[in-house]
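re the bet — no i am not wrong, look at it urself. input seq straight from the record:
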Amino acid sequence: MPNYVIRKLRQPDDFEAVSLLVNMIWSEPTTAEQLKEVEDKIPPGVLNYNEDGALIGWDRPQWVAEDEHGQVVAYAIAWRASWTETGALNHTIVVNPEIRGNGVGRALYAELHQWAVDVKASCLIDSIRETDVRSVAFAGRRGYVKERHIFESVLDLESFDGGELYNSINEAKQAGIRFVTMAEEPGEASERKLYELYKTTHPDIPGYSGTFPWFEEWKKWSIEQHGVRPELIHIAKDGDRYIGVVTLQQNDQTEAMYHEYTGVLLEYRGRHIALALKMLGVQTARACGVPYLRTNNDSMNVPMLRINRDLIGFRAEPGNYKMVRNLRLE
């Protein structure tokens, strides 16, 4: 590695180079400004240990590899939020494809792995594109196993004809369900009702682990995310009760929208309320001139996959493997 130096990321100087790297592996592009916006939301890391000695708290160290010309050619981040599963660390590593195979990725990973060992993490979690055979093999050689498969799906709106699917909206209304957006019901009282809906439905997502963030953190990372606007949050109501939600997030570069969240209370499932909410989302996206909608679903989330692919017609795209390395066995 004589031509490369591994160093800590410098904020905000490195964000432009890092955005170019992560855009090579992320489904939707980001910018240096958006990366900075995320970092500005996060206070300095505070890691700690519970009564059993397991890692808790939050932190997100980041490293880059710089070549002899001062160019950032690889990037790594390890992170956990305070609500992340006890002991776990998530991470991402990306190397410019033009220099893969020369040891930069190995050196960067070694730095990240040593940090994880030093803070006594119990496992490392990575999300790798299923089509990235080299990265999957790289992880496998280091003891990672495939724990879950996250499918990605895309709906091309220019050619989409919802047909009778839109009837689900009127059917829900006839059954007494009302639909509003957060733009129509602004304010903290509505936000807290929505928070409780998210908190109640989140554990039902296959593969969900950890705890749920408190209200202020949830708000920061859900309805205040870049690209989420009040008119993009569709809520189903039974009386004054929030019983279902679809939240959309728009990307500035592609103008496409992402289904950031879909949830319906257990006792209201099986009544096509999720379908009605999704079709309201489709209507909103089409009215905004959006070219396509993107979503992700765990392979075990059969009901949502059925709605997205079998009923609405989302096109299957290559997804991601959740890869886990158990550090307790080392």
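see?? The two ends are 26 Å apart (CA to CA). told u. also Residues 32 and 223 are 21 Å apart (CA to CA). so pay up
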